[in-house]
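Retry 2 of 3 after timeout on previous attempt. Resubmitting structure tokens to design endpoint.
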């Protein structure tokens, strides 16, 4: 019976996870056709000494795209027009209507062959009434993935008035990541040393520079000698701040200031236990550490019925309060983060006809371990899947088992004599809002 219970509960959970992640992946092209130069006019250089970047560009259909091939051509022209109108934007080199190379090496080669120093793939996915735009870009000069994000369009593209579409959510990050460079950025001339002063939060640790590890002092600055001109990429991490990666082309500058954002202190969850009982929780960050404390509440008063063909909804006069301490295994600047934790739970009951909550007599309390993964959805909204096996204290395991009914056919717990019951099949999935 335990195996059957596991199959039923994880079948519901698998369906819910599939729906949660359905829009995650897009199709990749496999052929490698010759690039076709874009018909869009190149923007003027930002200054006499600087020239715009050169970008190999491709627009493709993403998952569940509701737009036809002809409409994709119109959307591409609209985007290229908006990009060309942006000051300091890179010059796009249109790859054509056939599929973009699938591997990074092939994409890098295609960009070099086209005379570009970076490439960008833009995918239009989602449903027609609420399309999503996915952006992936690689910078060949810095040898790093520079853009990887998705944005949701609030409504369907107006095809009759598409050239009024500004594409600001996409164009602005592109222009920010690919500003014009001095003309000799593409040369191999001998560099000369320059003393660069970096300003930021005291205690910030900087890694990735050829000079080695650097720490910003109590005065909020640190200095380092670097060859110039040359491209650099480094990571800055400080307690209480989100780690950040800075990419720059050093051309005689003597000072830069880090863009450091405070770490979020609160994350709010809306989730379903096992995919069919609703709950909410608040996760409080512990300053200067990758730790969090969580208070959660799950109700069994309303949920999706399991193994009952006559009812869609189930109602049990129980609720569960949880208290957890945990820590993030993955750094804060990772898009996908793993975390683990443990804590206690308390089950409370509101019997029919009563107006007073009482501690449940069959399963009054227990302990719970958690292991989860969260990944970005849009902006500050993230999705998560969490495995949470639990040990419940029960004064009468046999009575607890009988409470499921002789004809229920399932008992999703493993009894541990004399006073315990284990639920190995418990999981939560939902969304997390980062504040």
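Retry 2 succeeded. Sequence:
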């Amino acid at each position: 019976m335990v195996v059957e219970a596991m199959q039923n509960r994880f079948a519901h959970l698998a369906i819910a996870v599939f729906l949660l992640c359905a829009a995650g992946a897009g199709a990749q092209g496999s052929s490698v056709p010759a690039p076709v130069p874009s018909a869009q006019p190149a923007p003027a250089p930002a200054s006499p000494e600087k020239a715009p970047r050169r970008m190999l560009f491709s627009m493709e259909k993403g998952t569940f795209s509701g737009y036809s091939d002809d409409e994709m051509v119109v959307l591409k022209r609209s985007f290229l027009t908006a990009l060309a109108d942006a000051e300091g934007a890179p010059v796009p080199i249109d790859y054509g209507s056939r599929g973009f190379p699938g591997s990074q090496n092939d994409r890098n080669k295609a960009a070099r062959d086209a005379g570009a120093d970076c490439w960008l793939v833009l995918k239009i996915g989602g449903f027609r009434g609420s399309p999503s735009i996915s952006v992936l870009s690689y910078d060949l000069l810095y040898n790093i993935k520079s853009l990887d994000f998705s944005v949701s369009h609030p409504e369907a593209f107006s095809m009759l008035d598409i050239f009024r579409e500004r594409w600001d959510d996409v164009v602005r990050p592109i222009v920010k990541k690919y500003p014009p460079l001095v003309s000799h950025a593409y040369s191999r001339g001998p560099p000369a040393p320059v003393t660069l002063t970096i300003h930021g939060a005291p205690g910030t640790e900087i890694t990735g520079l050829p000079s080695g590890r650097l720490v910003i002092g109590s005065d909020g600055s640190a200095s380092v000698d670097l060859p110039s001109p040359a491209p650099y990429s480094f990571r800055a991490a400080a307690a209480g701040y989100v780690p950040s990666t800075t990419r720059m082309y050093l051309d005689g500058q003597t000072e830069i200031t880090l863009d450091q954002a405070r770490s979020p202190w609160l994350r709010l969850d809306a989730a379903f236990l096992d995919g069919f009982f609703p709950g909410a929780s608040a996760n409080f960050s512990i300053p200067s550490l990758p730790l969090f404390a969580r208070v959660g509440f799950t109700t069994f008063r309303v949920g999706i019925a399991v193994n009952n063909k006559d009812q869609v909804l189930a109602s049990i006069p129980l609720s569960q309060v949880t208290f957890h301490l945990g820590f993030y295994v993955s750094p804060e600047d990772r898009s996908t983060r793993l975390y683990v934790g443990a804590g206690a739970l308390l089950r409370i009951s509101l019997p029919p006809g009563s107006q007073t909550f009482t501690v449940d007599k069959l399963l009054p309390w227990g302990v719970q371990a958690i292991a989860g993964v969260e990944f970005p959805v849009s902006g500050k909204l993230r999705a998560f899947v969490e495995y949470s096996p639990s040990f419940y204290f029960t004064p009468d395991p046999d009575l607890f088992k009988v409470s499921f009914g002789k004809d229920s056919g399932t008992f999703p717990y493993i009894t541990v004599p004399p006073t315990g019951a284990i639920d190995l099949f418990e999981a939560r999935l939902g969304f997390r809002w980062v504040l």
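Attempt log closed. DSSP finds five helices and 28 strands in the chain.
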